[in-house]
Each structure stands twice: as structure tokens, then as C-alpha cells.
UniProtKB/TrEMBL annotation:
<comment type="function">
    <text>Exhibits palmitoyl protein thioesterase (S-depalmitoylation) activity in vitro and most likely plays a role in protein S-depalmitoylation.</text>
</comment>
<dbReference type="GO" id="GO:0007040">
    <property type="term" value="P:lysosome organization"/>
</dbReference>
<dbReference type="GO" id="GO:0008474">
    <property type="term" value="F:palmitoyl-(protein) hydrolase activity"/>
</dbReference>
<dbReference type="GO" id="GO:0005765">
    <property type="term" value="C:lysosomal membrane"/>
</dbReference>
<protein>
    <recommendedName>
        <fullName>Bis(monoacylglycero)phosphate synthase CLN5</fullName>
    </recommendedName>
</protein>
<feature type="signal peptide">
    <location>
        <begin position="1"/>
        <end position="19"/>
    </location>
</feature>
<keyword id="KW-0732">Signal</keyword>
<comment type="function">
    <text>Catalyzes the synthesis of bis(monoacylglycero)phosphate (BMP) via transacylation of 2 molecules of lysophosphatidylglycerol (LPG). BMP also known as lysobisphosphatidic acid plays a key role in the formation of intraluminal vesicles and in maintaining intracellular cholesterol homeostasis. Can use only LPG as the exclusive lysophospholipid acyl donor for base exchange and displays BMP synthase activity towards various LPGs (LPG 14:0, LPG 16:0, LPG 18:0, LPG 18:1) with a higher preference for longer chain lengths.</text>
</comment>
<keyword id="KW-0325">Glycoprotein</keyword>
<comment type="similarity">
    <text>Belongs to the CLN5 family.</text>
</comment>
<dbReference type="GO" id="GO:0016798">
    <property type="term" value="F:hydrolase activity, acting on glycosyl bonds"/>
</dbReference>
<dbReference type="Pfam" id="PF15014">
    <property type="entry name" value="CLN5"/>
</dbReference>
<dbReference type="InterPro" id="IPR026138">
    <property type="entry name" value="CLN5"/>
</dbReference>
């Protein structure tokens, strides 16, 4: 690559960053594409429900109760262990008072969390392959024991069947245009006035969006209920836009940058033997903490994060229900 070409790329990057609106808006799509055959789920997505997120039709006059539901991530495998670290999965429950039928709706990864968080490095030439789709799943029934034993199952609103049907139309659109899962939130500091660079797009954000949409549709919430959500935050100075798969890994791409990105994600490959995994974790620590580098994948583009202390933080923060103005201080 000539000096002129490098200068042009640098100028484009500077202009892109200067023109960026923070936080970077999550990219929406016209429709959901097919997934790559390489992407395989250890646990099938939405095995007993409607993986397209479709919802039953209600009579306009029906009274439908709405529930906030929370349980520890991977409770089926670890019980309440992750609840002690505030690593919580969120969902919404509905109960039709006329029919007595219950429904559970949740939004989660098609191919499990690790696949959504880190790309797969398959060769030393190709770009990382991402299995990062997420989607809504609605299925019959509410497993009261699952949600209430180690988490919570709380009624937060009552809506009409008409509002439920309007919500169903919105869920269908949201599900087919918001197609990929994003684990990380990225900020510049821990303070209350910190700058938000990127927002997460996960089970919690889906529940928050849905409750806000119900508020827009006229639902009145029980604002005495406090709702907290798990957030995993990376901390960096202002991100630098690097480009997409074609511009970085294509024939006219930046081979040095492509190698650095592949090397970064090689630290996070699953199914490694323990000695290799330990080595990868130590190398990841060096890259993130000592060298202060993170190559972030968002909107199917790569960004460079100049990492800073505390580097990563897990919090359980209140996001008030629609109509609740104050936030309860911890």
C-alpha cells in the first residue's frame, strides 16, 4: 500500500469519526438473512415456540396481564449460581384472562452467547465468521417455578387485546429488522455523565423496547415495580471506525489490520484444550489491559476501541418502567 493510499484511508477514518453521532445507531435490516451453515446451536433456538416471533390473535376486548420475568442465565445448568453475580436473563409473560392461556416471550441468541460475542477464526486468510443472530421466541405457557424460584415473576401492567395485537405487529417488524445480538455496551467512563459509544442489543434491551412500545400504545404500568437489567460494559476513549469485511479483508484491504483483527479474535475461540485456553486468556489480558486494544464488531463493521480503566464492568442497573420518573439509588 502506497503512502498516498495510507493517507487517504487515515483521512477517511478521521472524517468518519468526526462525523459520527454517538451512540452509533444500531443498524436495521429489510429482512432476516439465512444463517451460515457453519453456525450450529448447542441448544436449539425456540424448540417449542414460534421462532419467527409471531404472536396469537386476541379479541379486542380481552384483558391481558403483562409480567416482567427474570431468571439467572443458564439456570437449567448452574441453578442460581449466576444470580449471585447479577447475570440475569429477561423475558415477558402474558396472561389472557378470558381464555386463561399464558405465553412467554423472550429474545435471545440463535447460537448461544459466546458465538454472538466473538467471531470464529477459521483460516489465516479469511475474515472472522460471525454467528451473531438473535431473535424473538414466543411459546405457550409460563414456567412459574423457573422464573420465580431463583428470579422474579411480577405483574407490571394490564392491556387490552387490541393493544396486544398492535404490539404483535410491532414485534414482527422489530424481530425481522433487528437481527443481530450485541453483548457489549461501550462507554468512556463509569460516571453518571459518561459518553455512550455503543448500546447493547440483547434480551434486556428487547424487554425494555417492548415495555416502552406498550407505553406508547397507552399501557399503564405499575410504577411501584423496580426493574433492573444486567449490563456488560467496555470502557474506551473515542472509538475509531476501521471499515467492513470488504474494505479490511478484501483484495484491496489492509493486510496488516486484517491480521491484527484475526489475531485478536483468536484469543476467544471456543473448544480449545485447557493449556491453549489458558494461553489465549493470558494473551487477551495483554492485548486488552496492557496494550489497551479491542477490535469491536458492530453493525457488521469493525471499530478500534482505545481501552481504558476499568476496562470491563458488569452492573445491574435500573431502567424504570414507562411512567416511573425516578431511579432508585443503590
Amino acid at each position: 500500500m502506497s503512502g498516498v493510499e495510507k493517507l487517504v484511508i487515515l483521512l477517511v477514518a478521521v472524517v468518519t469519526v468526526c462525523a459520527a453521532v454517538w451512540p452509533i445507531p444500531y443498524r436495521r435490516f429489510d429482512s432476516r438473512p439465512k444463517t451460515d451453515a457453519f453456525c450450529q446451536a448447542l441448544y436449539p433456538f425456540c424448540p417449542t415456540g414460534h421462532p419467527d416471533g409471531s404472536m396469537p390473535k386476541m379479541m379486542d376486548s380481552d384483558v391481558v396481564e403483562v409480567f416482567s420475568m427474570k431468571a439467572p442465565v443458564w439456570e437449567f445448568k448452574f441453578g442460581d449460581l449466576l444470580a449471585h453475580f447479577d447475570i440475569i436473563h429477561d423475558a415477558i409473560g402474558f396472561r389472557n384472562n378470558r381464555t386463561g392461556l399464558n405465553y412467554t416471550m423472550e429474545w435471545y441468541e440463535l447460537f448461544q452467547l459466546f458465538n454472538c460475542t466473538f467471531g470464529h477464526v477459521l483460516t489465516d486468510m479469511d475474515p472472522p465468521l460471525w454467528c451473531n443472530q438473535g431473535a424473538a421466541c414466543l411459546y405457550d405457557g409460563i414456567d412459574d417455578l423457573h422464573w420465580s424460584q431463583n428470579g422474579s415473576l411480577v405483574k407490571v401492567a394490564e392491556i387490552s387485546g387490541k393493544v396486544f395485537n398492535e404490539l404483535a405487529d410491532w414485534v414482527h417488524t422489530d424481530n425481522n429488522t433487528g437481527i443481530y445480538y450485541e453483548t457489549w455496551m461501550v462507554r468512556n467512563s463509569t460516571g453518571p455523565d459518561s459518553k455512550l459509544w455503543f448500546e447493547a442489543f440483547d434480551c434486556a434491551s428487547f424487554v425494555i423496547r417492548t415495555f416502552n412500545k406498550l407505553g406508547d400504545l397507552g399501557a399503564k404500568f405499575n410504577t411501584s415495580v423496580q426493574t433492573n437489567y444486567t449490563k456488560i460494559t467496555l470502557f474506551s476513549d473515542q472509538p475509531v471506525h476501521l471499515g467492513n469485511t470488504s474494505t479490511i479483508f478484501g483484495p484491496k484491504g489492509n493486510k496488516t489490520l486484517a491480521t491484527e483483527i484475526r489475531t485478536f479474535y483468536e484469543h476467544f475461540q471456543a473448544h480449545q484444550p485447557f493449556p491453549s485456553l489458558l494461553k489465549s486468556m493470558l494473551e487477551a489480558f495483554d492485548t486488552i489491559v496492557l496494550e489497551k486494544k479491542w477490535y469491536f464488531f458492530y453493525n457488521f463493521e469493525y471499530w478500534f476501541l482505545p481501552m481504558k480503566e476499568p476496562f470491563l464492568k458488569l452492573t445491574y442497573e435500573e431502567v424504570p418502567l414507562p411512567g416511573r420518573k425516578e431511579v432508585t439509588l443503590a
